[in-house]
Amino acid sequence: MVKVTVCGAAGGIGQPLSLLLKQSPLISHLSLFDIVNTPGVAADLSHINSASKVTGHVGNEQMEDALKDATIVVIPAGVPRKPGMTRDDLFKINAGIIRDLAVGVAKYAPKAFVLVISNPVNSTVPIVSEVFKKHGVYDAKKIFGVTTLDIVRASTFVSELINADPAQLKVPVVGGHSGVTILPLLSQVEGTNKLTQEQVEQVTNRIQFGGDEVVKAKAGTGSATLSMAFAGARFTLAVLDAINGKSGVVECTYVNLEADAEGAKAIKQVVGDDVAYFSAQVQLGKEGVAKINAIGSLSDFEKKLFEAALPELKGNIVKGASFITDAK
Ligand code: NAD
Ligand code: LMR
Hints:
Layout: E1 3-7, H1 14-22, E2 29-34, H2 38-46, E3 53-58, H3 63-67, E4 72-75, H4 91-108, E5 113-116, H5 121-134, E6 143-145, H6 148-162, E7 173-175, E8 182-184, H7 197-208, H8 210-218, H9 226-243, E9 249-256, H10 261-271, E10 277-285, E11 288-292, H11 300-325
Parallel strand pairs: 1-2, 1-4, 2-3, 4-5, 5-6
Antiparallel strand pairs: 7-8, 9-10, 10-11
Helix pairs in contact: 1-9, 4-5, 5-11, 6-7, 6-9
The chain binds nicotinamide-adenine-dinucleotide and (2S)-2-hydroxybutanedioic acid.
């Protein structure tokens, strides 16, 4: 029996994500936490005739009930971008929100798998890790940055070009989750050899800046919510499958490379010793990260993308971690 808590459950992502999770027979209790409106969202979802119980919890005084005994905590809490903003611009508001939620999870659900959606993911995941370290409950295998939307976009955009089934086409996307730190590895995808270099560069750029495409189209009302809910549900269900003993569950996700020392060695040969967190293809198991797969072969174009990505990624990681470690 698995309790899943969604923090930020009343938001643009939180509501459709909770709807998708309500449909899973693998969840026995769906717990919705937010600073507003979760009683209404919970009442609404609770009328759906799937097996899980739904509860709504509002504000800090109800955080313990929301989180205790959770096996998975999914976090889409915090502000989204408006046109002209970078994800890093969200740090000044979202860093504190994530810190406070991470403190709650460390206290009330210290063994939970934590799935971080809130931006900037490159920094919010290190924040959660450092809070867990401070509370003595850190397990690198169980803290994940959700980068699945990059994978979903890559499957969609590349399949349009090579005439493949988007639901089946797998495009590895590694690195981080912001602009140039998003590294699609098209050269590893069968069928992309028929693309011109210009097409490869254009679709790579579209995957890297897919979030901006949505932010611009939404014209100030927010960023991706529905596609993110889809992606967030896909990743949560993959974690649930792995917890339930399914083998061969592999998803790209942003983790601390400490989660698998062997896998880290191979990745650090490509990205350098000083990159602590990286999104890679990760094999998921009952305890979380089972294995971090190697990056694989890169084209010359992809090698250049790596060079452009690493300084920004490293800066984002240090900024997130030091928000906790340097706090008075
Ligand atoms: P939103 O404003 O619609 O919803 C956010 C929700 O978080 C709101 O309901 C708000 O009340 C709640 N919240 C704020 N502070 C909270 C706290 N302390 N505890 C609990 N809940 C709190 O925003 P959204 O569109 O759902 O986006 C949420 C976040 O997800 C943003 O940071 C956005 O950038 C990020 N995002 C990430 C990805 C990704 O690929 N990882 C994709 C899309 C959006
Ligand atoms: C996305 O990739 O859509 C999200 O990270 C939201 C954003 O700000 O672009």
